[in-house]
Amino acid sequence: MKSLFATACALLLATTAYNVNAEEHNPAGPSVVEIQQTDDGWQLIRNGEPFYIKGMGGTGNRMGDLAAIGGNALRTWGVGPNTGKLLDDAHANGIAVILNIWLPHSRGENPEEVYTDPQLLDRLRNETRSAVEAHKNHPALLAWSLGNESEAENVHPAEYWAFLEELAALVQDLDPNHPVMTTTSELARPDEPFGQRIRENCPSIDIWGINSYGGMFSISQRLAEQRETGWNGPHIIMEFGPLGQWEVPKKFDVAPIEQSSTEKALQVAQLWNDQIVGDPNCLGGFGFLWGQKQEETHTWFGIFVETRPTGIFDTYQRLWTGSWPDDRAPSILDITPNFDEPIAPGSTHQAEVTAFDPEGKTLKFGWHLELRQPNALSYGKSEKRPQDLSTLLHYDGDAVTMTAPSEPGVYRLFILVEDPGGKVATANTIFKVE
Length: 434
What we know:
The chain has 8 helices and 24 strands. The protein has an 8-stranded parallel beta barrel with strand order 4-5-6-7-8-11-12-15, surrounded by 5 helices. Strands 18-19-22-21 form a 4-stranded antiparallel beta sheet. It has about 425 residues and is of the alpha/beta class.
């Protein structure tokens, strides 16, 4: 399986030592968060009340919209100069925040030096201390997460787990009011069971955070199977959503096949109910991504297309509040043809989308054409959007006539369906010019 360990890197906020006036970002004093074991499993207690995480991973934009659909938590990937403002905005909207302290991955120019370099370790200690002291008393703080998939590709696992415990103990000492966790990519890699490593090497870790995509369909069962020898405490799903581009079949051996936004919404509902709410040892979860990013496509990860909500947004409202919004996003049933065989440069083709609006409203259709970038699989980092080739398209509503590009390559034909309220559905089909 490729790149489960890096999906969130695009949102990394560089962790740097900085000075923050703690008084400026302390509107109401610290929250107090505890973990309690029940007869059935585990639960979070925040300021004396049970707290089940209904969260999103993101940078903090549209905080009011998150609260409006029943969300109560946000997770980050780093701590930086804008973290105080993010916490203030979250608190104003009733949102709790898990702050991640970024730890480096063992990839780069000198991967053998990561977690054995004394200067690097001293810098990470100082950055961790600065972050905790700056934000530990903010009422929006829910927990600390040390590293996001920083265990991945680690060439010095023993040194890594020992250092992780050192940092966790430091955070526990500096801030007794909030749990400490670490977030891994899935449950294991070959010969490296992460849950067992945390249990054996990191007694100061309170919660195991897990990022999972295709593996989400069985994560609760797999966790149950390893509780005797592996992790037997509480966990949080820190990232989940559509199938990752590293997990799906590839068309013409190069282009990952993307689910429509309608399919993604259905999958989110199934996984939330079966694998998150259905697991008594799970403290809740965070959908990925509260926003939009270019990763393989501009529609692959993200609850929004630019500022327009997709059906995934509506699905979370249904999951978290029990009610659908009055205006639901359109649904896409199919986009045809499949273009299974290569087409000739300059040839003419028709395509059509089958879509509907739940309230029966008139829909608008927008078609878009892009060349698929050969190096699009970039380990979770944001990518540059490909050139717009939509001048080759002529469309009227749900049907489009396309003149095939003159240059050989693999292309994506996108459809965006929008209702009068500005909610959208997306899909794309892949074709090859040869």
